[in-house]
Amino acid sequence: MARQLRGAARILGSWRSYCLKGQKKQVSEDFVEMLKAVVGEPNVSTAAVVLEQHGHDESMHRCSPPDAVVWPQSVEQVSRLAALCYDHTIPIIPFGTGTGLEGGVNAIRGGICFNLTHMDRILDLNVDDFSVTVEPGVTRKALNSYLRDTGLWFPVDPGADASLCGMAATGASGTNAVRYGTMMENVINLEVVLANGQILHTSGQGRRFRKSSAGYNLTGLFVGSEGTLGLITTATLRLHGIPEATVGAVCAFPSIQAAVDCTVQIIQSGVPVARIEFLDEVMIDACNKYSGLTNAVAPTLFLEFHGSQQGLEEQLRRTEEITQQNGSSHFAWSKELEERNRLWAARHNAWYATLALRPGCKGYSTDVCVPISRLPEIMVQAKEDMNASGLTGTIVGHVGDGNFHCILAFNSEDADEYRRVEEFVKQLGRNALAMHGTCTGEHGIGLGKRQLLKEEIGPVGMETMRQIKSVLDPKNLMNPGKVL
Predict the structure, then answer these.
(1) How far apart are CA 403 and CA 416, in angstroms?
(2) CA-to-CA distance for 466 and 474, rounded, in angstroms?
(3) Contact, 31 vs 88, CB < 8 A?
(4) Mapped to the 3 state alphabet, what secondary structure does 298-317 carry?
(5) Which of 342, 391, 410, 425 is spaced 20 to 30 A from 146 at the CA atom?
(6) Residues facing 405 on adjacent strands
(7) Terminus-to-terminus CA distance in the chain, angstroms?
(8) pLDDT per residue as tens digits for the range 35-94
(9) Which residues contact 132 (CB under 8 A, 6 or more apart)?
(10) Is there a contact between 217 and 298 (Cβ–Cβ < 8 Å)?
């Protein structure tokens, strides 16, 4: 616990003024003692520094601390803790690495934060079946390090070293989605503790089949549920073979339209590209300054190809032809890891490069997803709206699947600027909906996009979701105030 307190203290200074105060405490000392009886005194904390650490993620939403934090060690303990909270009508908020982007861990109604990071075992690796079962404290980097000598890897990469069960809960995605899919396509089975403490295995206990038509898709119901239906305590994931060879490439274009047209043509041509990432000219300029690079200041695509040596040669040849047809004057590529890392440096440092545009300010990233054909239109509109709002920001995107992000650097203590950020995010979401897209491709709904979700799926969709929620969580204790 001392180590946890020290870690929290290091970040508290920058968040103290950002936390909401005056929230009514609803957890008694007797209830805290009940929690300690389940997990042991060292695994329960009501210290202010720990509560504030667990009251926020990486979003712009102000910190809302819980009343207590618990660190369960097993699914049995999670089940007993949940049953206690259910019996006493106390809210439950799951917490993994805290890297979410929509306020998903903020305890806006108080309650008990379940920090699941101590449950960090890799339980069952089946190399021949291309599957693995992990507890919620296992992060994607830890899993891939464990898999290094097996010839397998888990490709879903949201950028941050997020916990895998947290990634399932938020329906995470990332740069490899264009080839390998999102968490929705890569989760086979989930163990979930429901609000009343019951333990559910969404595909049946221990099952790891590749496909099924047996009944409702309960696994899919919990992927992306953001902790509002239950606590994910294990996830069985689909693994993939490590490619024989990898090539990275970078090419600049005269316009956003040209870059997106090129993306569409690459996909239509059947080239099995693993990653297609877009950075606008503002982002490229920021990255050049931040990392000492010399990339052309223009809309730019970063690509990665996975496959056999012979297959990659054909992929590169065809892709270079397509880029030239769309006005790209320089197509740089490399098979060597060090050189690939250099080529991709701008994309990997995009967040920090944007923050460097306004030192001392906070960062916020929002995302939408639209049909690829509408990408140029919405990106240009986003840039115009950003400039009209007087905001400082950049645009990056997983353009292979129509998903892009606006990264904003803003002063969180400036009420007017905070309001302009909120208005920009809402307008961007509504622009995406008007173009038959979604208000979020991978960040989730959390606190900030609940109204946009209503506009996206309509009253019947919202009522159906509320009915599902009321059956699984009749007391509205699971991460209340999020999504719905």
Answers:
(1) 28
(2) 10
(3) yes
(4) CCEEEEEEEECHHHHHHHHH
(5) 342
(6) 367, 396
(7) 34
(8) 999 999 999 999 999 999 999 998 888 899 999 999 999 999 999 999 999 999 999 999
(9) 122, 124, 125, 126, 143, 147, 154, 236, 237, 239
(10) no
